[in-house]
Amino acid sequence: MNLAGKKILLGLTGGIACYKAAELARGLVKAGAGVQVVMTEASRHFITPVTMQALSGKPVYTDQWDSRISNNMAHIDLSREADLILIAPCSADFMRKLVHGAADDLLSTLCLARPSTVPLLVAPAMNVEMWENPATKRNADQLRADRVVLLGPASGDQACGDTGLGRMLEPDQLLEAVSAFFQPKRLAGRHVMITAGPTFEPIDPVRGITNLSSGKMGYAIARAAHAAGATVTLVSGPTALQTPLGVTRVPVTTAREMHEAVMSEITAYDLFIAVAAVADWRVASVSEQKIKKQAGQTPTLQFEQNPDILASVAALPSPPYCVGFAAESEDLLRQGAAKREKKGIPLLVGNIGHQTFGRDDNALVLFDEHGHQSLARASKETLAIRLIEEISRRLPAKT
């Protein structure tokens, strides 16, 4: 993630989730952002300004009368200097302050005084009963109506021992959300379906046929498409990857399950990106019991062909704009061009499979009716953003 040159004002309010803010600040700095921390009195009961200063590399502000600001207007100067204000954690009490325009400390005052061009993002963090309380729900709705962006909360175990909604999102999720906020919204209003990961074709209850795809490229593209403003559905084979923030994930295992999941919904989408490494064949007769090893005997497997998901979508009477992926082992330029023609799609993205499966970087070649274009090796996150940019240029105008 690249936040080079971005100025982030990170506000901390009272809550045990302040410990996550330390990792968040470190992540923002590593991504290239300048981080200015402002802390409420309550937050200082959970983490010290010294800690946040060490991680951000800048003095921490806690007092609206701070004399380090020459004009004694910290609430004005700090909000004017920021590209984005992020309150993480944001307590139920601070949500109330934002709704009612309270200005009784530095953080609440600078939020109220911020220019309309400076976006405000909040990451709620509180007990499940506090989050579910009707008063908090009303405040959350009003914040959204006031164009404040709510990030989360998540569901899970809480410090008090309860379980449910109210946990602050994890630092990497918040970092992802901040990065996405700065991305151009090239796909705003678009509905995008993406397939990702491998498929797994069972032989018996404990064995199967799969491939080396990690799903990283598909998940990176889903993340980039969401950051570009699209509504994204990710139909994913088995992976250990975390679902990108804001993306709807549909888990599947086999090629036929993936085909069914795609075809049942695809008419509602205007862009389809088939990144998944789908098995071409499946075992014709799956054993109901584990096939036992017997001395001198080798089992014989009969195969049958799986449905071609990309070809099925491209053959629809009114197909979405289709982008295919091809992982080849040799002669990529010839085979990529031929596969695009065979599939009948406007854009195909090719790579050498054994040079990318499981890795964090990749190199891509884009094939269209005009020929081919190379995208030099880079991280999959970087390539995903570049690919979404290329796709957005080629997409037909929305009618």
Task: Explain how this protein is built.
This protein is of the alpha/beta class. It is built from 13 helices and 19 strands. The strands form 5 sheets. The protein has an 8-stranded mixed β-sheet with strand order 12-11-8-13-16-17-18-19, with helices on both faces. The chain has a 5-stranded parallel β-sheet with strand order 2-1-3-4-5, with helices on both faces. Helix 8 (171-181) packs across helix 9 and helix 9 (216-227) packs across helix 13 (380-394). The longest helix has 15 residues, at 380-394. The two termini are 33 Å apart.
Main sheet strand line-up: 12-11-8-13-16-17-18-19
Number of helices: 13
The helicity comes to: 25-40%
Low-confidence stretches: none
- The number of E-state strands comes to 19
Q: Please state roughly what percent of the residues sit in beta strands, choosing from under 5%, 5-15%, 15-25%, 25-35%, 35-45% or over 45%.
A: 15-25%
For the biggest sheet, the summary is: 8 strands, mixed
> First CA to last CA: what distance?
33 Å
Main structural class: alpha/beta
Report the mean per-residue pLDDT as an integer: 90
What's the overall geometry? elongated
Radius of gyration: 25 Å
